[in-house]
Amino acid sequence: MEPKPPRLDTPRLVIRMAMPADAPLVAAFLCEERAHLAPFEPPRQPEYFTEEYWRIQCVRQLQEFLDGRSLRLWLFDAQRPELVLGRAGLSRIERGGFHACNLGYALRQGAQGKGLMHEALKAILSYAFASMGLHRVEANYMPHNERSGRVLERLGFAKEGLAHEYLHINGKWQDHVLTALTNKEWKAQ
Fold first, then answer.
1. What is the pLDDT of residues 56-113, one digit of tens each?
2. CB under 8 Å to 23, separation ≥6 — which residues?
3. Helices 23-32 and 51-66 sit at what angle, rounded to 10 degrees?
4. Residue 18 belongs to domain spanning
5. Which CATH number fits the domain that encloses residue 41?
6. Is the four-CA dihedral 170, 173, 174, 179 of positive or negative sign?
7. What's the pLDDT tens digit per position in 121-143?
């Protein structure tokens, strides 16, 4: 039986995978937040900001979820479901002796400072540990991104080191603080 993509409801958010019909909403979010997100992301090709690109990506991301390789979620405003507030994803999911993944996330500039990402990640991490059976979630951030560091610290992520020239972000190699959260209740399934 194939796993069913999750829908996580929090007091202010509906967190779910985007479907092809959501491509206009996703593209609008990315276009509106392009300048805000650019300092934290790799360079993007123009097609990344189009509805057609996201219709295709939604299908690909669903297949990655079904294959157990990733879980790409979008944060929709619970009061205005047509408004994408952000995204969060679990990528590079590994099993075997690892049972771990990487966490990435982004939030609309106007939605920051309200605890929304904490709310979203708390629900996503609960799902990752309880439903997906993951033992470890790694999340990395650039040292100057103090807001991201505070979100992770509040969620219980522990700093594990600094990776020099870790990712090519905004046109240059950037250092990243390495953090992780482990599931103390993990049991082999």
1. 999 999 999 999 999 999 999 999 999 999 999 999 999 999 999 999 999 999 999 9
2. 51, 52, 54, 55, 58
3. 110
4. 7-135
5. 3.40.630.30
6. positive
7. 999 999 999 999 999 999 999 99
